[in-house]
Design brief:
Number of strands: 3
CATH class of the largest domain: Alpha Beta
Strand content: 5-15%
Radius of gyration: 16 Å
Number of domains: 2
CATH superfamily of the largest domain: Iron/manganese superoxide dismutase, C-terminal domain
CATH topology of the largest domain: minor pseudopilin epsh fold
Distance between the termini: 26 Å
Amino acid sequence: MYEQIKLDYAFDALEPYIDALTVETHYGKHHVNYTNTLNTLAEKAGVTDKDIVSLLSSLDSIADETLRKGIRNNGGGCYNHNLYFGTLSPNGGGEPQGKLADKIAATFGSFDEFKEKISNAAATQFGSGWAWLSANKAGDLKITATSNQDNPLMDGSGYTPIMAIDVWEHAYYLKYKNLRAEYIKQIFNVIDWNKVAANYEACL
């Protein structure tokens, strides 16, 4: 059974950057629905023995097109939100340290240049979707963006997401209305770089 991450912070803990009603609605309704629907579809498809990473990395093995599409959307929704909520924290902000910080500087030039690049990927993603920082087993980093609930696991490139910026309107509209760029700017105040760094180490 695929599970929704348990938040280690209260709904209002990310204020003033992400408001309590957004977290409650986003986590308590959207994310719950993705997770529940995934479990229903995975059972029908007979793939509940696969962990979520393996499942999303082998979608082509699901013969039924309707089930495959549903698992892509809802499996992505479950996984993507687990990563997103799992790397937010009221004690977030600042900059990464150690190996991840060094790799970001080596890959993108500086942390500020990295922020500019991933913010641009998030801001220019047309419609609903995500911006990602991903890593491969060699420790290489890459910034990408995907539509809907797609993620880098699905493209077979060998990259695993370690950080996500959700740019579906339900992630920011209650507070920021149509000002997506302002939401993107403020989310860096609640990104927990220790958790992102741990995700990076797990890829190696």
